[in-house]
Design goal:
The protein has helices at 34-47, 77-88, 124-142, 144-147, 168-185, 202-212, 236-241, 247-259, 283-296, 337-346, 418-424, 433-442; strands at residues 3-7, 13-14, 22-27, 51-55, 65-68, 71-74, 92-97, 110-111, 116-117, 151-154, 190-197, 218-222, 264-268, 302-303, 351-353, 362-368, 374-380, 391-398, 405-411, 448-449, 453-455, 458-465, 469-476. With 477 residues, it is of the alpha/beta class. The two termini are 27 Å apart.
Length: 477
């Protein structure tokens, strides 16, 4: 039986809630949908999320810059509709400045079904001028104090040929023009990059900006546990089975080292980079998500999960619920196990206490709120094809007073797992209103009392954790 011990008399360390900083979404135009907005509002209310990031604010389908009979015309109306909504619900954008308006593009290459242009600008100064006009407009519309709380990230994954047809040098010139345009509008606006996959180009961009005396207010990059593991023709499961537990923390530490004293924001990550990987919908992903967030909470300043919703259309808009897409919520807004993991993290304390004890698959964190509540988070997680079994955990809390209540909330195969009910329905492609209601109910968490005992001055709780399970134990003062 794994034994974990924590002395509640200690003074712990700050636990930053990096999971609440930013969430991802697929494509800017989706933010004009009522269902997208309703789901984001829910994430704001229930998860405390403060920023959202998406591709393509400069896309032609947003109409940001269009060619009208040879005259270039700015049209920021659609972009304003999105920003108006975010501000109205107390959120802010993490603005990914992409993709290339066709009127400025140097070539025809596109990505995704919505055909976002991925070529460098034919005239980098014209791109800089567009950025300056857009940000000037936003400062006039929302005020400098508000826009200074936003983030401006230059492009998306320029180290990947499907997102950028230029060279690294071309990207650095795009970064130069963008950063200078941002600062011409207001020196306190925040700009950063390189927004690469796999931690790429971080050290190179830092060196370039230092050599060229360019602003770099933050470093952003992306990673997934499937990155750089196995041959390119391996499937997702093979890549994950060849990965190592805790690899994302190792990568985050390396990115932080390369960034120096600059804040680091991972603006994409998930349990895998495959948009149709079924475990995204299962308790496996919830355990992975909770462990990964807590592994890097002391390393990075933001960790943006990709994505908050299955309202997503990079390949096509799929109408099947529980297809394995990236989101925390299905297209119907049904909470997946990952959403519940976010909820438990949001309700954790902000003081992190040292815990003694180790186990190959069980991880544990003891947190404390200002009002004295103790929240213990537990996961039992292993990568695919790695050994894992149900673990009986004994938790000893030294110096704990008698609580008024001890409750547990669970995410596992039998708790907060709506996909299991959907499978029992025969995996319907289209849901009736009654089925949606039943799935919402099956996705919920219910606090249950859990027995506790005394061992001298210590409070003892024992709990069984199935494979790929999450549990949150709350001790009320």
């Amino acid at each position: 039986m794994p034994l974990f011990r924590c002395d509640l008399a200690q003074t712990g360390e700050l636990l930053p809630h990096i999971w609440s900083h930013t969430v991802g979404s697929g494509h800017a135009t989706l933010a004009l949908r009522a269902d997208w907005q309703a789901q984001l509002r829910r994430c704001r209310d229930e998860l405390g999320v403060r920023h959202v990031r998406f591709h393509g604010i400069m896309d032609d389908d947003m109409g940001t810059l269009v060619d009208q009979a040879g005259e270039l015309v700015d049209s920021f109306f659609n972009a304003d509709q999105i920003m108006d909504f975010l501000v109205s619900i107390g959120m802010r954008p993490f603005v990914e400045l992409s993709l290339m308006p066709e009127a400025l593009a140097s070539g025809p290459d596109t990505v995704f079904h919505y055909k976002g242009n991925v070529t460098p600008p034919g005239d980098v100064d014209a791109w800089g001028g567009l950025i300056e006009r857009l940000l000037t407009h936003w400062v006039e519309r929302y005020g400098a104090d508000e826009v200074r709380q936003w983030f401006f990230e230059v492009w998306n994954e320029p180290n990947q040929s499907q997102f950028w047809t230029g060279t690294q040098a071309d990207y650095f010139e795009l970064y130069r023009a963008t950063a200078q345009a941002v600062k011409r509008v207001d020196s306190e606006l925040r700009v950063g990059g390189p927004a690469t996959s796999k931690n790429a180009w971080v050290e190179d961009l830092v060196a370039f900006c230092e050599a060229e005396d360019l602003p770099l207010d933050f470093v952003s990059t992306h990673h997934y546990p499937t990155d750089a593991f196995g041959a390119p023709d391996d499937d997702t499961r093979d890549q994950l089975s060849k990965s190592t537990r805790g690899i994302l923390r190792e990568q985050a530490l390396d990115a932080a080292r390369q960034a120096g004293d600059r804040p680091v924001y991972y603006t994409e990550w998930n349990a895998s980079s495959n948009p149709f990987y079924a475990p995204h919908d299962r308790p496996y992903a919830a355990a992975f998500v909770m462990k990964s967030f807590l592994d890097v909470a002391d390393v990075v300043q933001g960790y943006s999960f990709w994505t908050f919703t299955d309202l997503f259309e990079e390949v096509y808009f799929d109408s099947t619920p529980f297809k394995g897409k990236f989101g925390l919520l299905t297209i119907h807004g049904i909470a997946k196990p990952t959403y519940r993991a976010f909820e438990l993290l949001h309700r954790a304390g902000t003081e992190r206490l040292l815990v003694d004890g180790m186990h190959p698959t069980v991880d544990r964190w003891v947190t404390r709120h200002d009002d004295g509540r103790i929240v213990v988070l537990l996961t039992n997680h292993a990568l695919p094809d790695h050994d894992i079994e149900t673990a009986s955990v004994r938790l000893v809390l030294d110096g704990a007073p008698d609580p008024s209540a001890v409750t547990v909330e669970r995410v596992d195969e039998d708790h907060a797992n709506a996909r299991r009910l959907w499978e029992s329905m025969g995996e319907p492609d289209y849901l009736s209103a009654e089925q949606v209601e039943s799935l919402h109910a099956a996705s919920g968490m219910v606090p249950e009392p859990i027995e506790w005992s005394r061992d001298g001055e210590a409070l003892v709780v024992e709990i069984d954790l199935p494979a790929h399970a999450v549990a949150s134990i709350t001790l009320a003062p």
